[in-house]
Amino acid sequence: MTDSFVYAAARTPFGRFSGALAGTRPDDLAALAVRGVLARVPALDPGGIGDVVWGNANGAGEENRNVGRMAVLLAGLPTSVPATTVNRLCGSSLDAAMIASRTIETGDADIVLTGGVESMSRAPWVLPKPDRAYPTRDVTAVSTTLGWRLVNERMPKEWSVSLGEANEQLAERFGIPRERQDEFAVRSHQLADAAWSAGFYDDLVVPVTVDRKGNTLARDEGIRPGSTVAALAGLKPSFRTDGVITAGNASPLSDGASAVLLGSRAAAARIGADPLARIAGRGVFALDPQLFGFAPVEAANLALRSAGITWADISAVELNEAFAVQALACVDAWKIDPSIVNTKGGALALGHPLGASGGRLLGTLAHRLEESGERWGLAAICIGVGQALAVVLENVTEANR
Questions:
Q1: Where do the DSSP E strands lie in 71-194?
Q2: How far is it, in rounded angstroms, from Cα 367 to Cα 207?
Q3: Catalytic residue positions, numbered
């Protein structure tokens, strides 16, 4: 067994729902991310990529029919480069990277391109097929943007509650008040703005041309640097009249794509770059669907055991902020210093285009470790319907000292 490494990462800016990227097809966003990550390793012959593993949560619209393969073709890669698309909902692109790392470790390929895409703005409405020809009853169009749709009647009702209601239950379970959630959300916006201002994302984000006039989106569209706890306190609850979840402490609907290039150590010469980080551990975990926000707790613990380290070794955490309450519940359960979590902002500010978020986490984590010189980091993401994934990265430079 050989090791697998992160060599490069790139992503598009994440756009707001119905925002600047709403006019861009998801397969075009995916192709931009592919070209963006390959631009960071110009010595690599794209024909040498052994496989492409791509994530997408919807699959019902313009990203149907294997959007990973479409991205390869639209990006101008040789037609000999294969691709597949995987769906583990919010964890799809982190799952893609985990699959790719196993592919490399088993020797099936030396270089694998991974990533994911989601256009929540362009997610279509769908109609169920009628049971018979010429039905007389009305049929309701269902939005595929987010959450459960066309639910099987045999599914227990407590499992298929809305994502927001599930997190209201999480807030009750762990006694996490709204003010603490709002404070966490404000922190996310402030850190994201600071990271952009400091140039952290300059080498990670590929601008997107959004119209025929040549206008571009170069920065994540949802960041609100002026956000305050007082302002968020004025927002009405979104899911319960007396609830704690609002539009201010939940991640927004978003559009975007991310890409991460993985390879073996022997592939460094062909890639023309030194690796950034080693995939040191992986974890996958599942529990009751309505508790999905808490699933990263054990996924991360499993990844740490896989890497042979403990929380005491971890210096950087990238945890997807689907909701402030679920992120806080996980951080509390891990008993870690909150200051090491999402220091460059999180999904509450940056956005959460489902299929792209895992790649964003992994790329950001690798660059955080490179910037700080710290050795160990962890990326984790909760997944609707009660799952989570986690990956441990080891800073290659620090490991060689």
A1: 84-86, 111-119, 125-126, 142-143
A2: 18
A3: 90, 352, 382
pLDDT tens column, 192-238: 999 999 999 999 999 999 999 999 999 999 999 999 999 999 999 99
Assessment of whether the complete model's pTM goes beyond 0.85: yes
Q: Counting runs of H as helices and runs of E as strands, what totals does the chain give?
A: 12, 14
* Tens-place pLDDT, residues 266-304: 999 999 999 999 999 999 999 999 999 999 999 999 999
Reduced to 3 states (helix: H, G, I; strand: E, B; else coil), residue 244 is coil
Q: How many Å apart are CA 395 and CA 74, to the nearest integer?
A: 33
Return d(Cα 401, Cα 399) in angstroms, integer. Answer: 6
Structural domains in the chain (count): 1
Q: Is position 180 within any domain?
A: no
Alpha carbons 208 and 395: distance in angstroms, whole number: 30
Q: Please give the Cα distance from 114 to 259 (Å, whole number).
A: 6
Bridging pattern class, strands 316-319 and 376-383 = parallel
Looking at residue 68, which CATH number applies to its domain? 3.40.47.10
